[in-house]
């Protein structure tokens, strides 16, 4: 009888239907450790997210008084102003290079009296502007920037006209 029971137990243990129902301590421990590992990773990621969000919110409240809301047209105007400032910087560097070359030429008794060079130097020197006041509303800022730029260009053109007139008078003598 003992042999029959052990045979039936062996057959039952090897059947696929009952094998799936059989759960060992090893399987339970593996499942518990896997869940614990995923919970640990999830807790770490959630804590990291909460800490970064808290830091971000603190920065937003610190900078709350200094933040500026811009419309798309104001943003485009600021982009144009930045490109203008960048181009102006490049022109100033070119004018400084030209000024250095002129000083070297003057030391060698060679005067650069070209009309184009003189006009270029006068234009660069008169377009150097003072940084605009940015503590005003954006619409007023844009309006004042345009007015100042137009006035400066008009003044530069008058200076260039005088240079051309002087050059023509000197060439006729």
From TrEMBL:
Alphabetical keyword list: Membrane, Transmembrane, Transmembrane helix
Membrane-spanning intervals of the chain: 29-51
Protein name (Swiss-Prot/TrEMBL): GG11710
Gene assigned in the entry: Dere\GG11710
């Amino acid at each position: 009888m003992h042999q029959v029971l052990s045979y039936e137990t062996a057959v039952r243990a090897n059947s696929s239907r009952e094998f799936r129902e059989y759960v060992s301590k090893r399987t339970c421990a593996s499942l518990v450790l896997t869940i614990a590992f995923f919970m640990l990773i999830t807790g770490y990621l959630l804590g990291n997210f909460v800490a970064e969000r808290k830091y971000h919110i603190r920065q937003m409240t610190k900078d709350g008084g200094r933040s500026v809301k811009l419309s798309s047209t104001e943003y485009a105007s600021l982009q144009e102003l930045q490109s203008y400032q960048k181009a102006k910087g490049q022109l100033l560097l070119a004018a400084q290079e030209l000024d250095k070359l002129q000083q070297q030429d003057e030391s060698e008794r060679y005067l650069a009296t070209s009309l184009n060079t003189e006009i270029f130097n006068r234009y660069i020197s008169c377009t150097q502007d003072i940084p605009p006041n940015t503590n005003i509303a954006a619409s007023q800022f844009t309006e004042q920037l345009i007015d100042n730029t137009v006035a400066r260009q008009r003044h530069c053109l008058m200076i260039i006209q005088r240079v051309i007139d002087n050059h023509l008078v000197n060439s006729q003598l």
